[in-house]
Amino acid sequence: MEDTLSQSNSPHVLIFPFPVQGHVSCMLKLAELLCLSGVDVTFLNSDIIHRRLLRYTDVVSRFSCYPGFRFETISDGLPTDHPRSGNRVVDIFDSIKMVTKPMFRDMLLPGGCLNCGTRPPVTSVIADGIMCFTIDVAKEMGIPVFLFRTVSASCFWAFYCIPKLIESGDLPIKEDDEMDRLLNGVTGMENYLRLRDLPSFCRVSDLSDQGFQVVMSETQETYRANGLILNTFEDLEESALTQIRKHIPNLYAIGPLHANLKSRLEAHMSSPPRSSDSLWEEDRTCMTWLDEQAPKSVIYVSFGSMTMLNREDLIELWYGLVNSNKKFLWVIRPNSVAGDGRNIPAHLLEGTMKRGYMVRWAPQEDVLAHQAVGGFLTHSGWNSTLESIVAAVPMICWPYYADQQVNSRLVGEVWKLGFDMKDICDRVIVENVIKDLMDRKRDELTRPVDRMMKLATRSVAEGGTSYTSLNRLIEDIKTSTKDEYVF
Ligand code: UDP
Asked: Reaction catalysed (predicted)?
């Protein structure tokens, strides 16, 4: 039996995400898409992510209908009580490289749990593009590797251009630098990308900064993989995709992944069950609250899974929301506010009682699809941005880190799907921008928002660009064989 399995040629992909919410959820969606196409998948989670998925989601029953699917786990090398939040993300980079990398190699070696004859051998790896060490390990074993970068194509391209930005003197950032200055170094974005809009990891005065070094070197290594997968679609990011293709020709733009999965599931069954990839318990009482609100009357507020707020910003945002007189649904994740959470002004508590609803974690896709939601105050995480686009909900962007500074610029300046409030957190401005989004400037956003929703939907429908690109990826995975990997 073991011999038959180890000689089997059936495609078997190992998917290995960077262990944080946004990366795990879109790679799980890709895993399900591959399962639907008859590919065997092993999904390698960090122990802690896996425990939380088991606790808060139906992930086991969801994948139980795919006999070729299974989970494996690996340590991320950090102590259990490490917060793993955005302000400590460099710790995750570090420990993955130090602790997880050698474990990953052992798992793939003959006799390791990914290569012990109980399942068909791994025929290709889809690894998070921020973990390029997987290329070295897979190369050693003769297995092809596709990298999946979960940021926007535009951000990936900005990262790719870092050496040019250093050469032109734009980086590192100097003390007296004018942050609104347009940059020439990121080809195709010269007309709108300011110093302020570079990904947060580029906002450094010292080029030896660890986060900066990681994103620069990981991005430069991408060409060594067999292909690059991005969660985006041609009509949204054509310019960045065109630039990237000049350097990395084998590019698969297969997003929005959540819409791509929904569309393919619907082709298989009439009403696919709703599923969740949440690492926190979803509070569905907010859906009942939304049911009681008028159409497009509520602004949904969420800053994703990694953002840390300080008390000052929390209070300014809160005043802005309450003083806008709009209904609001606000996600405040546990342990996401630094400092003292007591002594909240009575005006804010009263305003929240009257017009607000707060939860610790929401079923975001369902919230955005609810007819009561008319706007999204977001940190511009890439998944959130795509989810808002598909739901045709205009955005106010208040980016925190990573690709969010680029995404918010695109939303506000290029796609005209909302307003960019980058680097500002002032109660009067927050109040005004909410009023603009929900009332005063609503009409000017409606057309671009509806148009982009339609383009997103078209891209994942049969014959659409992301649909076709996903089929090509599946074909390439099915025909990949061990030992074809040539450098
Ligand atoms: N999310 C959710 N409920 C919440 C907040 C966020 O389900 O209350 C999901 C959201 O739908 C998205 C993901 O968490 O899929 C966050 O990913 P994103 O890339 O937007 O931001 P990150 O958390 O990586 O900063």
From this structure: 7-deoxyloganetate + UDP-alpha-D-glucose = 7-deoxyloganate + UDP + H(+)
Cα 142 to averaged position of ligand 1 atoms, centre (Å) = 35
Distance CA 174, CA 376 (A): 34
Could you report the per-residue pLDDT of 98-126, keeping only the tens digit for each?
999 999 999 999 888 888 878 889 999 99
Taking only the tens place, the pLDDT of each residue in 18-31 is 999 999 999 999 99
Q: To test ligand 1's pocket by mutation, which of 28, 290, 364 has the most ligand atoms within 8 angstroms of CB?
A: 364
Closest protein CA for atom 6 of ligand 1: 304
Both tokens assigned to 459: 């891209």
Q: Which residues contact 462 (CB under 8 A, 6 or more apart)?
A: none
**C-alpha torsion 303→306→309→315, nearest 10:** 20
**Rounded CA gap, 395 and 437, in Å?**
8
* Ligand 1 neighbour 225 (Cβ under 6 A): no
pTM: 0.96
Question: 120: Cβ–Cβ under 8 A, 6 or more apart, which residues?
Answer: 5, 6, 8, 9, 10, 12, 40
Determine the Cα–Cα distance for residues 476 and 472; give it in Å rounded to an integer. 6
Domains of the chain, each with CATH number or no CATH: 2-159+167-172+181-275+460-485 (3.40.50.2000), 285-457 (3.40.50.2000)
